[in-house]
What does this fold into?
Amino acid sequence: MTRLLNKVAIITGAARGMGASHARKFVEEGAKVVITDLNEEAGIALAQELGENAMFIKQDVSSEADWDAVVAETEKAFGPVNILVNNAGISVNNSIENTTLEQYLKIVNINQVSVFLGMKAVVSSMKKTENGSIVNISSMNGLVAGAIGYTDTKFAVRGMTKAAAIDFARYGIRVNSVHPGVIETPMVTQGDSVEVIKEFAKHIPLKRVAKSEEVTNLVLFLASEESSYSTGSEFVIDGGLTAQ
It folds into this structure.
């Protein structure tokens, strides 16, 4: 399994959920992976599980200084960055009138500003490889309406992806966005969400939610040379929800 042999990847929000799934698959496919997250305990445990080709760095993705440190530490440990997966994000389901400015800006900083900072931070490193790939995790709500804050930031990720794809094409760096629907992660399989998700799944054309590994397979394709002529595009993985 060598689809990412000797590639160096940074994956944000990778201590758990979809990010952890991406990290496992990338290492399996030959990459050296830097896992970043605020969840230090889970991140360290995952890096130890994955062995010498993985490293954890605690990161606030909304901090420019943290981004600069992550890229510098990645280069020191593994070499120039080939792949960035901007996976970190939060979801808050609230109405506009019940959302404070502080709450709104928190979503913007984590879901949107972090993507800008990540792309800005890695470009100088990726220029050295001449074949970089940036995968920005948006959402089906980057295509259709959802909650305030979440929807607008995921639309922004889609737009930033296109702008960056044109900007970075001259360096041989590709930039694409992934738009998942409902994914089976701890966030949706615990507590009060379980029954709600089961009911919602009935309205998905494929009649089920996706597993993290299914999204990972798409992210892997975009990170690899198999997608060498794809840039500035949206890749939807939502079981047919936005096709209705």
User: Anything to note?
Assistant: The domain at 8-185+212-237 is CATH 3.40.50.720 (Rossmann fold). Helices lie at 17-28, 40-50, 64-77, 101-127, 150-168, 193-201, 212-223. The radius of gyration is 17 Å.
